[in-house]
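Researcher: We plan to redesign the surface later, but first we want a full-length starting point. Tokens attached.
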């Protein structure tokens, strides 16, 4: 099976993350990266990665099938649209755009060109998101007004919060909190206790309904 050939545009924190992951995947081949900063292109080359000299060079590379856009958020729209119009499939980092109108325009170009366009919404596979979606799909909450989701990493200081879903009554509204942690995910774990810098991330989602 031929590998999907990828170019990462934007070689900062997330671009470096994507490039590193792609290099370890069996079904993908990292052709290289492009970044507007000379030092970032040099850093890529020092890591054994090809650095394209311009975005135009990326678009002109017929072997490039997929572009991962990991630039500043306000640059996503132009890069995505140009890549789609050049016949590339595109994955954009989140947040995908600064407004819904820009997103609609990007989607329209993807439909016109027949290219794949999607967003790196990796958190949608986390336990808290999937739990809330399952409850929402079953219409068990009524009309949802707001969803707040937070990721607490290694420096978090959550102490003794309930692990299982807990519902709190706040006047006319209900707030449902879902806490999960890969470190304390066993069936006997009732609390996430004092997450230390060496621990894994925890995920907290709050849904406010009528």
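Model: Full-length starting sequence:
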């Amino acid at each position: 099976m031929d590998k999907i050939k990828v170019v990462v545009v934007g070689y900062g924190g997330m671009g470096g993350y994507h490039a590193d992951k792609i290099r370890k995947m069996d079904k993908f081949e990292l052709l290289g990266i492009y970044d507007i900063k000379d030092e970032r292109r040099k850093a890529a080359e020092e890591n054994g990665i090809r650095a394209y000299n311009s975005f135009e060079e990326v678009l002109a590379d017929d072997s490039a099938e997929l572009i991962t856009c990991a630039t500043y958020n306000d640059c996503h729209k132009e890069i995505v649209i140009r890549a789609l119009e050049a016949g590339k499939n595109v994955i954009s980092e989140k947040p995908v755009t600064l407004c819904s109108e820009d997103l609609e325009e990007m989607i329209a170009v993807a439909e016109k060109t027949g290219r794949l366009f999607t967003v790196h919404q990796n958190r949608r596979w986390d336990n808290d998101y999937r739990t809330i979606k399952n409850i929402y799909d079953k219409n068990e909450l009524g009309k949802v007004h707001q969803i707040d989701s937070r990721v607490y990493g290694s420096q978090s200081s959550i102490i003794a919060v309930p692990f299982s879903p807990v519902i709190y009554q706040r006047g006319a509204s209900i707030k449902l909190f879902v806490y999960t942690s890969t470190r304390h995910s066993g069936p006997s774990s009732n609390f996430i206790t004092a997450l230390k810098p060496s621990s894994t991330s925890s995920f907290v989602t709050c849904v406010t309904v009528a």
